[in-house]
Amino acid sequence: MTTEQKARLQVLVCTFGADGIRRVASSAHPRLDGVEYIVSWQQEGATPLPESLRRPDFKVYATDSTGLARNRNHALSKATAPLLLLSDDDVAYTAEGLQRVMNAFDSHPDCDLLTFRYESASGTKYYPGSQFPLDAPPKGYFASSIEIAFRRREPGKTIWFNEHFGIGADFPSGEEDIFIRDCLDAGMKGMFVPATVARHDGATTSGRNLMLSSRPLTKGAVFLRLHPRSWFARMIAHALREIPLWRQGKAPSPLSFCANWIKGVNRARRLKAFPTAAPASKPSGHEK
User: Fold this and answer.
1) Is 188 exposed, middle or buried (0-12, 13-18, 19+ CB in 10 A)?
2) pTM across the whole model
3) For 139, which DSSP code?
4) Which of 11, 41, 161, 185 has its CA 20 to 30 A from that of 150?
């Protein structure tokens, strides 16, 4: 891509510290006409930028912010292309995969938000075999952040990540679910497209320790946003499904699960984590 050409797709890469920026440098980021990489780098000390990232299709922006959601919002604030794809520092791309993202938006001109698939060595994530609207997902489906792409909205209508959620925030996960719901509530039409666009072999939040109290606590907060009228009934249903894992010693008791879920609901309410409408202005940070 020459300096006269404008990017059509920007990949928003978030990373932290010296090891993170080295992971970005060692991951596959093909040169492709119409594609740029925006790197939001939460720095920790004075680390030089790897020489391999000094490319015309890379733009690296340092920030002293903390927390993954703030990092994503920093990257989003630097975006200028009409199409945006979320990414992490250890995701590998091919030119074909990135082209699929742009082709999918061409094939779905009425959609503002698309989710895709990624491949990994484990291959354990469930994907439906056909496309479906994101406001009616099939049971068992969830979107990872690195599968989410969307059309950039005009200034003043940007949907930002809720900074109460994600690594380093009040709730250590769930930011993707909240972001998608905020987008849909803002009138963006969303669709899952069964196309593989990237490879990621690192650990994901879906492999978290089932015994952690933060898991049901975060679920409580997330379900308060996604299902404000039925979160209690859904909590009971989830707790019942946990019983076999509890009997195997792999999960806390259903009583403990529900107690932490309710703590999450109450904590989200106390923090006023959810505005009355989808956020259309840049967040100023979350409460302590």
Assistant:
1) buried
2) 0.92
3) T
4) 41
